[in-house]
Design brief:
The complex is a heterodimer. By secondary structure, chain A is mostly beta strands. Chain A has no helices and eleven strands. In chain A, strands 2, 4, 5, 6, 9, 10 and 11 form a seven-stranded mixed beta sheet that branches. Chain A is globular. The radius of gyration of chain B is 14 Å and the shape is globular. In chain B, strands 2, 4, 5, 9, 10 and 11 form a six-stranded mixed beta sheet that branches. Chain B is mostly beta strands. Chain B is 0% helix and 59% strand. Classes of the chains: A mainly beta, B mainly beta. At the A-B interface, strand 4, strand 5 and strand 10 of A face strand 4, strand 5 and strand 10 of B.
Chain lengths: 114, 114
């Protein structure tokens, strides 16, 4: 099992450009999450998907959209990138968000917006 | 807003010594988890302690939880250079609705000198 995979690993954008970060998990998990990690801030939840077909906002959703394409895949889209979105983005999944258990993380995408 | 805060922010010790890091949180929880993040990598789950537990062990790890003080500590015994990483606590807040979302602290950066 590959676990949680993310593409791309690195990306540089200019202000105003758009891009989609891809995430996939092969553990048959119901719930998936997108976080951003900034220095000194820990991880902050952007959006999550409790199950296929549902998505909800997290702590910092502004400037982002998500799509739960199927049970395996959960993408994060920046429609018009801003320098404030320079960050490391992590995707995670767990069995079921109706109870708290271990989340499994991908390796991250380092995004720089110039 | 951040639920947990780790203390200290950074810790440097010699190989073989014990490392202790602390986490404080703000609201009542169902459980608390600790994660490790090696430089440039995703987070890896270490241990979960439930609100009705006071202490838990896993190999060289010992976690304590004091719900009256809203705090937890992670002890790594006989540290190794490979333990060099950032350590994060994560909590779920009671009353968070149908979906239990993790809220991460700001992390402790541990450096183990060989």
């Amino acid at each position: 099992n590959a676990g949680v995979t993310q593409t791309p690993k690195f990306q540089v954008l200019k202000t105003g450009q758009s891009m989609t970060l891809q995430c996939a998990q092969d553990m048959n998990h119901n719930s998936m999450y997108w976080y951003r990690q900034d220095p000194g801030m820990g991880l902050r939840l952007i959006y999550y998907s409790a199950s296929e077909g549902t998505t909800d906002k997290g702590e910092v959703p502004n400037g982002y959209n998500v799509s739960r394409l199927n049970k395996r895949e959960f993408s994060l889209r920046l429609e018009s990138a801003a320098p404030s979105q320079t960050s490391v983005y992590f995707c995670a999944s767990n069995v079921d968000s109706s109870y708290t258990d271990t989340q499994y993380f991908g390796p991250g995408t380092r995004l720089t917006v110039l | 807003s951040q639920q947990g805060e780790e203390d200290p922010q950074a810790l440097s010790i010699q190989e073989g010594e014990n490392a202790t890091m602390n986490c404080s949180y703000k609201t009542s929880i169902n459980n608390l988890q600790w994660y490790r993040q090696n430089s440039g990598r995703g987070l890896v789950h270490l241990i979960l302690i439930r609100s009705n537990e006071r202490e838990k062990h896993s190999g060289r790890l010992r976690v304590t939880l004091d719900t009256s003080k809203k705090s937890s500590s992670l002890l790594i015994t006989a540290s190794r250079a490979a333990d060099t990483a950032s350590y994060f606590c994560a909590t779920d807040a009671i009353g968070g609705g149908a979906t239990n979302k993790l809220i991460f602290g700001t992390g402790t950066l541990l450096a183990v000198q060989p």
